[in-house]
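Notes from hallway chat w/ T.B., transcribed later so I don't forget. T.B. wanted the structure written out for a chain they're using in a teaching module, and asked if we could keep both sequence and structure tokens in one place. Agreed to drop them here.
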Amino acid sequence: MSVEGDFDPEALSKARQEVESGSIKARVRALYKFTRPHTIRGTILASIAGTIRALVDTPGAISTVNWSILLPRAVVGMTALLLGNAFIVGINQIYDKEIDEMNKPFLPVASGEMSKRTAWIAVVVSGVLGPILVKAFFPPLLFQLYCFGIFLGGIYSVPPIRTKKNPILAGMTIATVRGFLLNFGVYYAVKDAIGAPFGWSPKVAFIARFMVAFASVIAVTKDLPDMEGDKAYQIETLATRFGAKRIAQGATVCLSLNYVHAILTGLLAKSTDAFRMIPMVGGHLALVSMLIFRYRQLNPESLASIKQYYKHIWDLFYLEYGLYTLI
């Protein structure tokens, strides 16, 4: 079982045979799995939420915006982000093939559905085309930040740096890319597209802080289902060091404090217009309640339960972007 779906050896064997027989559908399906769909959902939701937030924050933007200009740029921007996402998760699968054969045998490189050669082609195309699109359609600052994100995503997996081997560096990498660069970049790009100056509104500042903290927790909990393989290949993570029970406890506490921070941010805002209280306070109360409920269902001795707990953390991550458009 994984965030993407269940591990079924017979289904994987059949999928390999279909790829080897030349099935286009099977190859497309393998490519889709290669992009790690749960990370794609996060990227798409961040893009949509950031776009809506930027338009709502700019008086008159929705009624006066030139959609014939904004929509094509939005499509290009989304494509560039998905290519960056594919580059980062793809190069990780190439260098983690042996570990994934134990931890994530459902992934296409580990299962044999996709050869390393095909994986390298997908990674190189993504890593080249993404920056080209950003360079051509967006301001220099966004191009620089995009390339910085690609660089961080690359050294996370590629030797000799391979920051994933250090739990602190791994957490900082994921928090920077998914917590800050993605959310800031989308908001800045939309503001630029509609000709409005960028400003750190209370909502943008909040989501940047909140998602950096949330992504840091994801950076730690993502290793919970992978402890067996990480130990075998001497990859030191906080999960291998402290165990599933303590990491889940710590993650739940950290996320709960993050939600408390969100609630207090709404209640203590200097301006009554800074946030809408029902989604800001009530929405985060509901999400922290879901978190605690899911944690109480966790059995740290069961790998299936651990994976389900990790999946619920991603579900909360997705839901936060829904709240972001409402606060």
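Follow-up for T.B.: The CA atoms of residues 51 and 190 lie 6 Å apart. Might be a good example for the class.
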